[in-house]
Amino acid sequence: MDNRYADEKVIQRLLGQAQTWAFVGLGNHPGRTAYDQARLLQSRGRRIIPVHPAAETVLGEPGYASLSDVPAKVDVVAVYRRSEYAGKAVDEAIAAGAGAVWLPLDVVDVAAAERARDAGLDVVMNRCPGVEWALRRPS
């Protein structure tokens, strides 16, 4: 895969300016990647919103069963699901009016990424927010 979905300016802007991140697949399971990344962004002053069928409170934030249940505007939807399920989450992000989708390492769905771009969303794919944060140190 090329770097179409790893634009430096988009990554910098999302990490530096996006305040509300919905984490699809975030459950109350410390040690899982979604939990670690949500905790990192929360520690950097970002609001995190857990989205998981269990709709449980995670890291002190109330959870929602789906993106359509989230009552707040979401800047970035981070999709912590396997690639074969990512497309559904991306489509829900588009329908919810999110500003961007971020698919972490090893979560790749080019068709879904193109649908998101065609809908006007920024897309980052196959990148880790924590690694990118460490490389850029946004404010």
Automatic annotation (TrEMBL):
It comes from the Bacteria. Pfam families: CoA_binding_2 (PF13380). Transmembrane segments: none annotated. Residues 14-107 form the CoA-binding domain. SUPFAM superfamilies: NAD(P)-binding Rossmann-fold domains (SSF51735). This is CoA-binding protein. It comes from Nonomuraea turkmeniaca.
